[in-house]
Amino acid sequence: MNNVFQRSASKRLAQFPTNFSLRQETPWWNQILDPGSPTLTKWNHVILFTCLVALFLDPLYFYLPVIGAPGCLQIDRTLGIFVTFFRTVADLFFFMHIFIKFRTAFVAPSSRVFGRGELVMDRKAIAIRYLRSSFIIDLAAALPLPQIVIWFIIPGSKGSTAAHANHTLSLIVLVQYIPRFSIMFPINQRIIKSTGVVAKTAWSGAVYNLVQYTLASHILGASWYVLSIQRQFECWSIECSKENNGTHSPSCNTLFLDCSTVGRPDRNAWLKQTNVIINCDALNDDDKDFEFGMFADAFTNNVASSAFTDKFFYCLWWGLKSLCSYGQSIVTSTLTSETLFCCLICIAGLVFFSLFIGNMQSYLQSTTARLEEWRIRRRDTEEWMRHRQLPMDLQERVRRFVNYQWVATRGVDEEAILKSLPLDLRRQIQRHLCLALVRRVPFFNQMDDQLLDAICERLVCSLNTKGMFLIREGDPVPEMLFIIRGKVESSTTNGGRTGFYNSITLGPGDFCGEELLTWALIPNSDSCINLPLSTRTVKSITEVEAFALRAWELRYVAKQFKRLHSKKLQHAFRYYSHQWRTWGATFIQAAWRRYKRRKMAIELARQENLFYDVDGSGEGILVVAEVEDDEAVSSDAGHQAQHLGVTLLASKFAKNTRRGAKKVMARISHDDNMLKMPKMFKPLEPDFSVL
User: Fold this and answer.
1) Which has fewest Cβ within 10 Å: 227, 287, 381, 613?
2) What are the pLDDT digits (tens) for 118-175?
3) Which segments cross the bilayer (predicted)?
């Protein structure tokens, strides 16, 4: 009984669809990522943007110390909260980046002999390699050190002042700025390795370089501001030490330089009697004991006590001005540290400005590279035409074609691009570009998809300006053209026959050069050495864009695909071929003219031969009217002589009439020869059955 139950249960389980598999997929946090996958490429762009934001946020800590009151410093709490929040968000992205790098495969160095190499998917090997390479730098860049210092360490320390907080915070930001700046380079290299470029368009690349240059100016301006505050506090400290003795009452205390003591009675008493503020005023030119040097603008323009937005944009402008002028506009003092800082600005300005101009020129030139090539080619063409002394009308036609080719292709060699791609991609692209256009040709609409794909794969673009002869009558036909846009005139004189001219207008969806199809289907290989001669002259009426199917490509398609013997395809070729249409129209016109000629000859002979009928041999037969009246037969003999005279006159008249009829028939025959159309030979029909 148990065996029966187990067999029935196994049968029911076997009937379950495969979608309800008991095997669970690996969760996303345990998956190993391919370093070249689109997901990881997008993440690299995200983390690169995060690095730029983090590098922009960190210098904002330099703006936290402000002059809150005369002679004291304080920390801007509102700005500190704003910067801390956004920096914490950026730190979360850095920790996510560390986690993703623990789940990113790498290419084994031993497998890079050929091709891309073999990916190592082992988690342990990935972790060991990452811990030995860049884990320490990534961790140092992700730690929230400034937040910990400004909100936990400094408030918890005894006797901490704004100056102490400024020094500590500035040191932490500068130390952590190095790993944050250094991780941008490997991310940038990974993006270039996977996609080829950081910015896909020229303008985005120019903006990317402009952001980097602006970021350098922002860092320089923030550093100048925090050093200016430090310079001001240094002056206050020196002057305060002079008053910290028994000769000055009340004595100066360094705690008075912190705004936390504002409002205390002893500080108010000291503030009324002190000379610290007057001696450390940058606008005071009388006291030259302390020089502010390059930092004087921060106090003469009241930058240190301004609102944050005014302060920020002024410092950004100062950094841009200093980098662009290589520090030439800076007035320094003789202090060694200040001079070294100015030297650093000059070198950084030279390096950054050179890189910025070079990268901007490269990106912007990429947008006009094709245009510049076209200008050079056009200049060379003009010089060549003048050197060869071409006629002016021919020169104008060459200029018109060059301009039209630039407008249509923008200087891109589509054929070279397609040849560099794999075969499958070429087929898919050609199918996307040409299939809908080829189906617009009624003759090709009768073919199946496989044959159309083979034809689309071998089509090339053909551009022609107004007034160009695509094919001339009597010349070999090198290619079959399928018109996409524009109009052409197709005319023929039937081999130069006098009095014959036929012309039609071809538009989008039409084709010309159908002689190649007959030539391609000829089974005898000896007759395929020479190309067929064109029976029509094709001239462009407007600018024409077309796809061309070359002779040998068409013959290859005809040999490879045996389905061209279809009766349906044969009827379609006859119906849409302009040669067959012209031949049919000419055949109908010739038959109609023969009919009109015969009818006119019969009518003319009937009108001139009132009493005679002209047979096919041309002999006249006298028609004698039978007199049935008995009274006329029984007339008297006196009238017999009169009847004899009438008979002679009638015979003479019949002879003259016969002579005149012969002249009329000769004249009609001559006119018929004059009006006869030249014989137009029936066009060759492709042999659809013998392949």
Assistant:
1) 613
2) 788 888 888 898 898 889 999 988 898 888 888 887 776 666 666 777 777 778 888 8
3) 46-67, 79-100, 130-154, 339-358
When pLDDT is cut at 50, 70 and 90, the band that residue 36 belongs to is confident
444 near 483, Cβ under 8 Å?
no
Handedness of CA 394, 400, 406, 409 (dihedral sign): negative
Say which residue, 475 or 195, is predicted with more confidence. Answer: 475
Mean pLDDT of 4-13: 42
H or E segment to which residue 550 belongs: strand 544-550
Give me the phi and psi of 561, to 5 degrees please. -110, 115
Length of the chain as a residue count = 691
Question: Within 13 A of 273's CA, how many CA atoms are on the CB side?
Answer: 14
Contact residues for 581 (Cβ-Cβ < 8 A; gap 6+): 504
Name, in order, each residue with C-beta under 8 angstroms of 246's C-beta and a sequence gap of 6 or more. Answer: none
- 257, 233 contact by CB (below 8 A): yes
Q: How far is CA 354 from the centre of its chain?
A: 30
- List, for residues 234-248, the tens digit of each pLDDT value: 888 888 887 776 555
Tokens at 537, concatenated: 């002259």
Cβ-contact 282, 304 below 8 angstroms: no
Cβ-based neighbour number of residue 488 at 10 Å:
24
State the helix-helix crossing angle for 308-324 and 336-388, rounded to 10 degrees: 60
First-to-last CA distance in the chain? Answer: 71
CB 597 within 8 A of CB 679: no
Work out the mean pLDDT of the chain and round it to a whole number.
75
Are residues 378 and 402 in contact, defined by beta-carbon separation less than 8 angstroms?
A: yes
Separation CA 565–CA 574 (nearest Å): 13
- Whether the CB-CB separation of 472 and 517 falls below 8 Å is answered with no
pLDDT of amino acid 662: 58
Predicted confidence at residue 111, as pLDDT, reads: 67
Most distant CA atoms of the chain, gap in Å: 192
Is residue 332 classed as helix, strand or coil in its secondary structure? coil
pLDDT at 628: 40
Asked whether residue 687 carries a pLDDT value surpassing 60, the answer given is no
H helices, E strands: number in the chain = 25, 12
Check residue 292 and give its pLDDT.
79
Q: Give whole-number Cα distances, 510 to 282, 369, 480, 514, 546, in Å.
A: 85, 37, 11, 11, 10
For residues 107 and 210, give the distance between their C-alpha atoms in angstroms, rounded to a whole number: 34
Dist. CA 627–CA 632, nearest whole Å: 7
Alpha helix ranges (H) inside 458-577: 515-520, 551-560, 567-576
Q: Give the DSSP H or E segment for 267.
A: helix 265-273
